[in-house]
Amino acid sequence: MSRNKYLIAIMFSCFSCAEPPRELSVLGPYKVVDEIVDGHLNTDTVFTSIRPFEFIDQEGNTVNHQTIEGKVYVTDFFFTSCPTICPKMKQQMLRIYDAYSDFDNLVLLSHSIDPVRDSVGRLKDYADKLGINSEKWHLVTGERDSIYSMAKHYMIAAQEDKLAPGGYAHSGAFLLVDQNKQIRGIYDGTDAEEVDQLIADIELILNQSEP
Amino acid sequence: MENGQGLGALIPPVANADFVLNNMEQLACIIKYGMQGEITVNGVVYNDQMEGNARLTDVEINNIIYYILVELNGQNKSFEIGDVKAHLDACKR
Fold first, then answer.
1. Under a CB-based contact definition with an 8 Å cutoff, are residues A108 and A198 in contact?
2. Which side of chain A, N or C, has fewer Cβ within a 10 Å radius?
């Protein structure tokens, strides 16, 4: 009899538990590594972290690992002549820009997949019209192959497509990368609700870094 | 943006936009073929390229113009299909 009471008590106590805080797992390719440590077999899952890159932003400044070192960043792929999803993506990205304008350890990194038309000058013009600061939101260009392989690395689809409006097809995904250069979230940048979640998740990650 | 407000100094508004009301004959062509160069909308200067959407049919363009004029600019009339065709013929590329 008392055992049943115990069981019921445990059940009820669980119902009144607060929801566990949202956890963001690391996303992307990983390796499972076996190691013998002190005679025990240790199995570890090692996630890929974003590999080194080098691009140039709208001010002509180099953007590479040093630019994002120790920072949380949101990244996407676009091009200035894109008539379809890009305006929406930029509008949503602006929300993130405004929400974290006072946080130095959150930056935005948008890659142009149209190196032909999107020169540094063109990117600067676009950035000025959007009203953004390059230190916070880098619009970058670079070698075509480097940009496209970077998109692959981030698992974001981007390619030339003569049949697509503007000549390029790409996904509207925003990726959230943490201070250890690991991917923690993928969101649809054209969807305001998903970007709401992204804005909340950025705060989670920024807080996690606090000692 | 869903409400036609535009985006910064990059994309002009189409809602309550004087440019729209002053250029009604050109709307079909602009929608289909895009436009570029400096324009002033509600007192703000914009200068960039707008991509057209050549795959839109006349019916679709008519519906878009209706939405822009009636829903976004408070007009109580819209174009007829015939108007759209005539305007597009005039700027045919």
1. no
2. C
Phi-psi category of residue B34: left, alpha or beta, with phi > 0 → left and psi -120 to 50 → alpha: left
Please state, in angstroms and rounded to a whole number, the distance separating the CA atoms of residues A49 and A127: 28
A94 close to B (CB below 8 A): yes
The model's pLDDT over A62-82, given as tens digits with 9 standing for 90+, comes to: 999 999 999 999 999 999 988
**A88: which chain B residues are within 8 Å (Cβ-Cβ)?**
1
Listed residue (A109, A96, A175) closest to A140, CA to CA: A109
Distance CA A17, CA A14 (A): 5
Partner-chain contact B10 A126, CB within 8 Å: yes
In the three-class reduction of DSSP (H, G, I as helix; E, B as strand; rest coil), residue B28 is classed as helix
Q: Rounded CA gap, A141 and A56, in Å?
A: 6
Alpha-carbon distance of B36 to B9, in angstroms, equals 14
Instruction: Work out the minimum CA distance from A129 to partner chain B, whole angstroms.
Output: 5
Residue among B83, B52, B16, B77 at smallest CA distance from A83: B52
Q: Which residue has the higher pLDDT, B14 or A3?
A: B14
In angstroms, the separation between the Cα of residue B52 and the nearest Cα of chain A is 8
pLDDT of residue A143: 94
